[in-house]
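Technical annex, item 7. During the second reporting period the consortium partners agreed on a shared format for inverse folding records so that results from different sites could be compared directly. Each record opens with the tokenized structure and is followed by the designed sequence. A conforming record, contributed by the partner at site C, is shown below for reference.
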């Protein structure tokens, strides 16, 4: 199964760059880009850090894509 995400939407709403988000959650800008483009699924720890940064539930940003 893959994970769909709304991370780019949340990031744009907050008007921050991939680099700024990466610095806030302790990863590289390339990691943020890979998550947004669906090339990389974040660990649970990273998904929780990202949702905490956006002050929302992890399920509002990341969802399992079935089938």
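Designed sequence (site C submission):
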């Amino acid at each position: 199964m893959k994970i769909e995400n709304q991370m780019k939407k949340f990031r744009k709403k907050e008007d921050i760059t991939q680099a700024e988000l990466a610095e806030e959650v302790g990863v590289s800008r390339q990691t943020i880009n890979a998550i947004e483009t669906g090339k990389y699924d974040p660990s649970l720890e990273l998904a929780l850090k990202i949702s905490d940064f956006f002050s929302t539930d992890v399920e509002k940003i990341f969802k399992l894509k079935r089938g």
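The domain at 2-59 is CATH 1.10.260.40 (434 Repressor (Amino-terminal Domain)). Residues 44-53 form the longest helix (10 residues). All partners now use this format for quarterly exchanges.
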